[in-house]
Amino acid sequence: MSTSDLTVRTASPAEHLAFLASRRSASFLQTPAWAAVKNEWRHESLLWERDGEPVGAGLVLYRDLPRLRRSLAYLPEGPVLDWGGDLRAHLDPMVAHLRRKGAFGIRIGPPVVVRRWDAATVKAGVADPEVHRLGDLAPTARETTGARVVSGLHELGWRPQGTDGGFAAGQPRHVFWIPLTDAAGEQRTPEDVLKGMNQLWRRNIKKADKAGVVVTKAPAGDVSDLAAFHELYVHTAERDGFTPRPASYFTRMFAALGAEDPDRISLWTAHHEGDLVAATIAVRVGEHAWYSYGASSTEKREVRGSNAVQWAMVQDALAAGAAVYDLRGITETLDADDPHVGLIQFKAGTGGEAVEYAGEWDLPVNRVLYSAFQTYLKRRR
Fold it and tell me: Per UniProt, which keywords does this protein have (predicted)?
């Protein structure tokens, strides 16, 4: 196959969305609506075509350099392509298009899995003082497509972006998810998923139910509880030591994703005797469901509202026919004394699996400007 077999052009949001609808799933960061959420970036939808037929799509976010008509072109968790095909044939026309648009560098996040570790393996790794990172453990599974993509990107001159063992500056390379289908592709039952959770998770779900925790999914388009979610989210950020996003970010997120598809985003709340004890935001595109943001009260933690709302969202994803419930990012560390290890232990209790993606990759188009931009970023850290 030659690169002339594929072309890349600017697409309308409708063309972009129509292609995504033909796929089993895609990252919500690659939907046209995500451009409205990240409104500090310029954006463009791309369409890959062969003989006039769409075979790929991507959302490009452009970060402009001050006073220069040059930009970093970023495709978070994308583009949406046949990553098992010829990498050069797919990527060269995209690079040529983005070069014409003034990109000094291009960053992509191929949505392909490289390795997986089941919950039992992760648990054993945390307990072993000789194991410090996920990479120290033999994976439960290796994915040939992912390995081929990593090798091919190296050969084509793309540069992997490291995370230094913590959370990535961009999108997470390591996530934790619960498979909602079995090895044969058949939908699992709620009872089967619950059985796969560890004893602590099952006990906490029962404890929440016995305590009378009430979990509610807001109707599509109803954001009346969004202010309460944000208040609890800020409280969670202060307790756990992270910087919260402003309320306006979540308002945009619900407006944009909800307008594109009323079932794309949902707000969940857990109350105990009238008190809000947990709240979450869920997103779904096709067969992939995400736990996107969460908040919990320091008071009444004993009623286990967080476990209750997670279990309700898992059941909702199953009912919608999702194949994956994605708990999003984890760090690679398994050191027992690392403050991040508690997060992977919490997620491993669901009985799912740790998943390593190919990660984010950069291609310097203009090496001088790209190098200057990298220096600028290092000084900001």
Answer: Acyltransferase, Cell shape, Cell wall biogenesis/degradation, Peptidoglycan synthesis, Transferase
